[in-house]
Amino acid sequence: MKKQIMIIEADKVGSATSPLNLSRTVAVTDTSERPRAGDVVAVRALTDSATYNMLELPTGRLAKINPGDVLIGVLGRRRALKGFVGDVPETINSGDQLHLLNMGGLIGFCTGHHSSLSDAIRLEVIGLVCDEDGRVQNIGDGALTPRPTLGHTARWS
Fold first, then answer.
1. Does some domain include residue 121?
2. I want to staple 47 with a disulfide (CB 3.0 to 4.6 A). Which of 54, 94, 122, 136 is the partner?
3. What's the predicted TM-score (pTM) here?
4. Any idea of the CA torsion for 19, 20, 25, 27, to the nearest 10 degrees?
5. Residues 108-125: tens digit of each pLDDT
6. 46 within some domain
7. How many folded domains does the chain comprise?
């Protein structure tokens, strides 16, 4: 069965997506595949946060997140003593609700947070960012190719 693909325009792209050099216009698909850490996801902000309401863009600039903003981020797991704790959901479908776990655009299901923070921003999943064939984009796609050695060692005088 061919996946449904639609083109969307994001308001903000999180710095976590930087290895892929994404534009704000992306293709998204609603998929039944098991989501993986690093999969790029398009979401709509449903709530605001008094203490954690900024998204770091690939340029390093911080932008305020407003309810209704369409964001591009990355699914991931986070363990933070003074931040949010969360996981990649076991399944993901358009309409599911997730949370913003850090300012770089890490997105997952929030399971806890430091007492000094208000609740994590709730997000509605629009879909997973994909290529023209419907293959979900993952930040690992932009990783450096592993090398068996690091090459010559430097000698320090």
1. yes
2. 122
3. 0.88
4. -140
5. 998 887 777 778 899 999
6. yes
7. 1
